[in-house]
């Protein structure tokens, strides 16, 4: 139920802001707005303003602003009503193309601006940040076959400098390495008091090909899956596993590595610390076909801290985050076109509802952050040059400005059909993805 409520709040805010952008710029340029609708289909609620009909409709998956004289982009040759609409200075037809472009652009623009405001609001309220980001760069795990393993980085190495510059914590290290993408970096390591210098080639894109090191994460249980061996054995959220069959466990990754050595179904003994008490727990791991290994059905607890910023710094952070996500969105779209990113990663209304519901349960800041993230995506996706989207209209208007004449009405009609077909197919596909995820 909370997912449905969160989804309706989120989608209501995003649609209202988007359509308000179109509405405001239309009124700014003197265009008469006939209908302002949140949602499609039959209206649930409607009221008449001075000249605009405002309504909330049944299907909450979009909205529209109906402007006077919007039905055609070419001058009518017959029909008194059409001619009147074209010649009326308050008609959308009568406006110069640069004003039409700004009216179309305003919707996505308002979504992008909303994203910055909501990111800033979340930063002012306080966001949860992984605690390890402010801790020294002590390597908890080196992923097999990774760049880090190849150059000789080992668990419990402490990275103290990059290219001669001292590194205090994981956040500084992440930024320093990110600045060295596709280049070599000299890493200074403290290994049990011994100074070791390694030369590492940083991958071109560390989001796709990470260095292969992870921080020290205590073997504390964050979640226990329902019906899992862990639940049956009585393990609880917050329990810390300190030994596995008598062998000390220093981190979550050591626990995972030890579990990976199990090749048959047999009982194991875990030494658990709970509320200051230490006691043994016997549990029999079950084989997971998808992961192709034996599992307990637990996930780690990630310790977090609440980080707050002042007004000015919050907006600086918000702009920085928006830029970062803009690059990420571009890479995803590019990857979808080139085939590097699977279409199966796309989510539809069900995925958004689940995502927004989880965010709302986490807290107000997380919910605002999630709305901002979706708003940013909505803004950029609407700017894609696909007919029936704002970007499609902008593309047509730009072409008309270049050729200095309107495109044929038939051409626009066919482009609209193509646009509807593309969006309809995409919607069916993402909903199918959602259903398959839900079923699995």
TrEMBL record:
Query: What CDD domains does the record tag this protein with?
Result: cpPDZ_EcRseP-like, S2P-M50_PDZ_RseP-like
Entry cofactors: Zn(2+)
**InterPro entries associated with the record:** PDZ, PDZ_6, PDZ_sf, Pept_M50_Zn, Peptidase_M50
Q: Name one GO biological process term.
A: proteolysis
Q: How does it sit in the membrane?
A: Multi-pass membrane protein
User: What keywords appear on the UniProt entry?
Assistant: Hydrolase, Membrane, Metal-binding, Metalloprotease, Protease, Transmembrane, Transmembrane helix, Zinc
Q: Which domain of life is it from?
A: Bacteria
Q: One cellular component GO annotation, for this chain's record?
A: membrane
Transmembrane segments annotated in the record for this chain: 7-29, 101-125, 359-378, 384-402, 414-432
Q: Name one GO molecular function term.
A: metal ion binding
What residues does the PDZ domain cover? 137-204, 199-251
Q: Give the Enzyme Commission number.
A: 3.4.24.-
Gene3D superfamilies named among the record's database cross-references: 2.30.42.10
The record's subcellular location field reads: Membrane
Q: Which Pfam families match?
A: PDZ_6, Peptidase_M50
Residue stretches in coiled coil:
none
Top-level enzyme category: hydrolase
Q: Provide the family line.
A: Belongs to the peptidase M50B family.
**Which PANTHER family does the protein's record reference?**
MEMBRANE METALLOPROTEASE ARASP2, CHLOROPLASTIC-RELATED (PTHR42837:SF2), REGULATOR OF SIGMA-E PROTEASE RSEP (PTHR42837)
Protein name in the entry: Zinc metalloprotease
Q: Which species is this record about?
A: Persephonella marina (strain DSM 14350 / EX-H1)
């Amino acid at each position: 139920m909370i997912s449905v409520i969160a989804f309706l709040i989120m989608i209501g805010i995003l649609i209202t802001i988007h359509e308000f952008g179109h509405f405001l710029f239309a009124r700014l340029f003197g265009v008469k707005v006939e209908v302002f609708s949140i949602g499609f289909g039959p209206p649930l609620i409607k009221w008449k303003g001075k000249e605009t009909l405002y309504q909330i409709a049944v299907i909450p998956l979009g909205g529209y602003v109906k402007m006077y004289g919007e039905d055609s982009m070419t001058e009518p040759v017959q029909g008194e009503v059409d001619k009147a609409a074209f010649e009326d200075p308050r008609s959308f037809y009568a406006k110069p193309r640069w004003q039409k472009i700004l009216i179309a652009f305003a919707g996505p623009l308002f979504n992008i601006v909303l994203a910055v405001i909501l990111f800033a609001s979340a930063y002012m309220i306080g966001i949860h940040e992984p605690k390890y980001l402010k801790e020294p760069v002590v390597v908890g795990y080196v992923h097999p076959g990774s760049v880090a393993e190849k150059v000789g980085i080992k668990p419990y190495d402490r990275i103290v400098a990059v290219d001669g510059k001292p590194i205090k914590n994981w956040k500084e290290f992440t930024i320093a390495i990110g600045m060295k993408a596709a280049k070599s970096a000299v890493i200074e390591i403290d290994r049990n008091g011994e100074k070791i210098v390694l030369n590492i080639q940083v991958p071109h894109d560390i989001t796709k090909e990470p260095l292969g090191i992870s921080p020290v994460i205590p073997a504390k249980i964050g979640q226990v899956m329902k019906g899992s061996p862990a639940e049956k054995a009585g393990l609880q959220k917050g329990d810390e596993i300190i030994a596995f069959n008598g062998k000390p466990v220093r981190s979550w990754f050591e626990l995972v590595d030890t579990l990976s050595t199990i090749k048959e179904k047999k009982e194991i003994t875990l030494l658990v610390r709970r509320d200051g008490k230490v006691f043994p727990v016997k549990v029999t791991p079950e084989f997971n076909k998808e992961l192709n290994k034996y599992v307990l059905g637990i996930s780690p607890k990630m310790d977090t801290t609440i980080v707050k910023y002042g007004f000015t710094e919050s907006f600086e952070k918000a702009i920085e985050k928006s830029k970062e996500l803009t690059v990420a969105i571009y890479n995803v779209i590019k990857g979808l076109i080139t085939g590097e990113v699977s279409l199966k990663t796309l989510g539809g209304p069900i995925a958004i509802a689940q995502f927004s519901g989880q965010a709302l349960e986490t807290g107000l800041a997380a919910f605002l952050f999630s709305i901002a993230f979706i708003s940013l995506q909505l803004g950029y996706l609407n700017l894609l040059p696909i007919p029936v989207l704002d970007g499609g209209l902008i593309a047509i208007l730009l072409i008309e400005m270049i050729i200095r004449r309107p495109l044929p009405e038939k051409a626009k009609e066919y482009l609209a059909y193509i646009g509807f077909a593309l969006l309809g197919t995409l919607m069916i596909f993402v909903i199918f993805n959602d259903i398959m995820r839900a079923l699995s």
